[in-house]
Amino acid sequence: MESRRLADLKETALGLVSTQSFPAIVGTADMMLKSANVTLVGYEKIGSGYCTAVVRGNISDVRLAVEAGAATAKEFGQELAITIIPRPYPNLDVVLPISTRLTRYAGASSSRLSRLAIGLLETKGFPAMVGAADAMLKSAEVHLAGYETTGAGYCTAIVRGAVADVAVAIEAGMHEADRIGEFHALMIVPRPLEDLEETLPIASCWVEQPKPVRIPLNIKDPEKETRALPILQEQPEAQESEQNPDS
To answer: DSSP letter string over 183-247?
Structure first.
């Protein structure tokens, strides 16, 4: 089955969409996968933040995917270039680092982080990314899965977790990145497909961490000394008025 899939991939068209932000290219690739029956081969990062998503499939599907990807990139003001290569020659596959990733699909297994939402936060400057990653881990129950660098100082922290936790973490990381350096871009992918999962970095080691700091609920205010209120005595005038109601 896998050998047939690899053979089919070699006979299909190639589609490329580029942006100048890693979170933007991941969101673009996600939309390409969900709009047509294509395979995400991977990304090419050539520096200065420039990233290209590469997909393969039959010509009609690749056209649909590229159109959807270009529309998504435009929403972020990120579309730089697109192209479709029908039936690429073997020489192109050999020279460019495109076909080498196809062997990954044979025997690939799901990772521990599969089916979790993905959050990507891009900063300009490594200290800003590290500070943002720390803030994200402390603000919500997410895990740091890896990071990407794309040149010109652009760094992207990648976290995984439930959609709500990822959203909270990204917001906290964005503010911390602005405080330290410069926040550049973000992306949240609620339900990533398997092809997208396999193109993102996964940390080689995994460290269990405590849950984020929360306000404890068992803290009670110190008990205050209570005093009994004095019994108010009725005034003489009030007593006389009660005894003589007709007066």
So the answer is: EEEEEEESS--HHHHHHS---SS----PPPP---S---PPPPPP-PPPPPPPPHHHHHHHH-TT-
